[in-house]
Request: fold
Amino acid sequence: MRVRVATGEVVMGRLERGDDLLEALTAVCRAEGVRLGRLEALGAVERAVVGFYDQDGLGYRYHELDEPLEILVLVGNVSLRDGQPTVHAHVVLGDAEGRALGGHLAPGTRVFACEYSVEILEGGELHRGAHEPTGLPLWVRKHPA
Reply:
């Protein structure tokens, strides 16, 4: 399954200290009316929650990282889930010793400082729904009502 899109505007900004990183990025996308897009961010977090998908168990295992960390890379996309813009992002974080940790960005990651950009894509929509073979909410074909 694929959709052809064109690049549109880019929304850039800064999140506030203490924001939940995933929730704040989602709120930006909803406020800006982003229905399809890609995003990236840099900065630092006070603590993080990242997930690893257990392919055998078909579920996420979450790791809580209760320490200050640098956002080395955050990449993700925006699509629709239940008609609402939803952010799916992965993050690589660096600790004070220079080690990299990362995974699926989960709620509970608290911003210290964060700058983001969201590239709005035009000309198509992608919808998230249940994908039985993997147990993940992946892009699915939306059938007309």
About this structure: The radius of gyration is 16 Å.
